[in-house]
Write a structure and sequence with these properties.
Layout (H helix, E strand, L loop, with lengths): L1 E4 L6 E7 L2 E5 L2 H7 L2 E13 L4 E5 L4 E6 L5 E6 L5 E4 L10 E6 L15 E3 L13
Parallel strand pairs: 3-9, 9-10
Antiparallel strand pairs: 1-2, 2-4, 3-4, 4-8, 5-6, 6-7
């Protein structure tokens, strides 16, 4: 199991399967939520301790976002119809073997930042969603 923790330590997420390739999302909603969303897919058995400190926000008809009510750490993004969680890579204890491999909603990326990493880039039309994120 791989463990992710919030800043204050009240919430801990243990994940059986963690994709070492992470994604950055450039949609306005993700940028408003924390500046830049860099997360990886976690699946299989997922155990969350500190549930009483978690607030979940329904950010759209198809997704929700969770954060720690004690320290404000963004904990995960979840597509409601799917079992996996997308957890920020910075919450994991060991991140040396993570690889930045994909950027989504690349057509929403503002000009004020950019990455030198070579990644696969997906635009809005490449992402099948019920309703697109705020442009």
């Amino acid at each position: 199991m791989t463990i992710a923790n919030c800043l204050c330590g009240h919430v801990s997420i243990s994940c059986e399967k963690v994709n070492r390739h992470f994604t950055t999302c450039h949609c306005n909603m993700c940028r408003r939520w924390g500046g830049l969303w860099m997360a990886t897919e976690c699946s299989g058995t997922i155990t969350i301790t500190g549930q009483e400190k978690i607030a979940v926000y329904d950010s759209s008809t198809w997704a929700e976002r969770a954060f720690c009510t004690s320290c404000g750490t963004h904990l995960y993004y979840k597509v409601k119809r799917e079992p996996q969680l997308y957890i920020p890579v910075g919450l994991f204890e060991k991140v040396d073997d993570f690889v930045f491999s994909r950027q989504i909603f690349f057509d929403h990326k503002p000009d004020y930042y950019g990455f030198e990493n070579k990644t696969a880039n997906y635009n809005s039309e490449d992402i099948p969603l019920a309703d697109p994120p705020d442009a």
